[in-house]
Design a protein that fits this description.
The chain has four helices and 17 strands. It is α+β, with helices and mostly antiparallel strands. A hairpin with a 4-residue loop joins strand 13 and strand 14.
Length: 315
């Protein structure tokens, strides 16, 4: 009977062995990507038939190893996560060697994957800041674009061919911006910078850039140009006013033609305009004579059966 039970349980045991033990032992190929002091841990997703799978990240620095009996610290933002990346920028805050490991939980089955080598933030890759210059205004503006907020920039400025007398300016505040007064003319000004990250004692150099600083218009020339512009504007306004006063009637006659009144309307027009008063009544009416003073005399005329009465008044 025991042999029969073993035969029944053997396929089930084989299923669990294949789907859990072998799958959880699959390497995650963990690696650290650190650029400009931003430390991102990445790994491959687990290839297994799990209904639920999550990952947790732990790290151990030299302090934990030697002073805390090898304690592992949980990465605060990377516990039981489903994605395959973890930002350890704020966790790895010292220049010590860190061991990092990842715990995989697949339906309750756990496995550990450790980073092949220790990581030190001194190994971060520093990207060279981009230097831009604005030579149009006065003073000249020099800007550096970078994601680092605790960097020191040493800016070196000199006239082309005279680097031994270069001036060095230190820029410590973020955003990294500097204003410099320079001689304008045909000579080129050269700029070179070095970015230093003091926390890890690491630096990178910015290539030399030489530019011509164009001459600016002096204040006197600017005032002269303003005066000329005002004089031109006043002259144009005076000319337009004179043309409007002297050529206005001709222009008006050209564009607004006046038609002559016909003589028939002027010769036969009555000197006195008769006042015609009409009144329409719906009731039968009789002729009515109005007696007025000698200044006003009206004559009443009865028109046909349409019951229209017309009164003509003359003064």
């Amino acid at each position: 009977m025991s042999s029969g039970l073993i035969k029944r349980l053997f396929p089930l045991l084989l299923h669990f062995t294949i789907n859990y033990s072998s799958s959880l032992s699959t390497p995650l190929n963990a690696s650290m990507h650190s650029v400009n002091m931003m430390h991102i841990l990445k790994w491959n997703l687990l290839k297994a038939s799990c209904s639920t799978v999550n990952y947790s990240v732990q790290f151990q620095g030299e302090y934990e190893l030697y002073n805390l009996d090898g304690t592992w610290v949980n990465a605060y933002d990377c516990q039981e996560i489903s994605e395959n990346r973890c930002d350890l920028t704020h966790d790895l805050a010292s220049n010590s060697d860190y061991s990092i490991r990842i715990k995989t939980n697949c339906d309750g089955q756990k496995s550990w994957t450790q980073l092949p080598a220790t990581f030190n933030r001194r190994d971060t890759v520093l990207l060279v800041p981009k230097m831009t210059m604005n030579v149009e205004g006065d003073p000249i503006q020099v800007d550096f674009s970078t994601t680092l907020s605790d960097m020191t920039v040493n800016l070196k400025v000199w006239k082309e061919g005279d680097e031994q007398n270069a001036l060095i300016h230190v820029i410590r505040a973020y955003p990294y911006h500097f204003s410099i007064a320079a001689h304008r003319g045909k000579e080129k000004m050269c700029f070179k910078a070095e970015a230093l990250l003091e926390a890890i004692n690491k630096s990178c150099s910015i290539d030399t850039q030489c530019v011509i600083i164009p001459k600016q218009t002096s204040d006197f020339m600017g005032l002269v140009m303003v005066i000329i512009a005002v004089v031109v504007a006043v002259t144009v306004a005076f000319i337009l006013g004179w043309l409007a006063a002297h050529l206005g009637p001709q222009i008006k006659q050209t564009f607004c033609y006046r038609e002559t009144i016909p003589n028939v309307l002027l010769d036969d027009w009555p000197t006195r305009t008769p006042i015609l008063c009409t009144d329409v009544s719906l009731e039968p009416t009789d002729p009515l004579l109005l007696l007025l003073s000698t200044e006003h005399q009206c004559t009443t005329v009865q028109l046909g059966g349409n019951r229209l009465k017309q009164v003509e008044c003359r003064t």
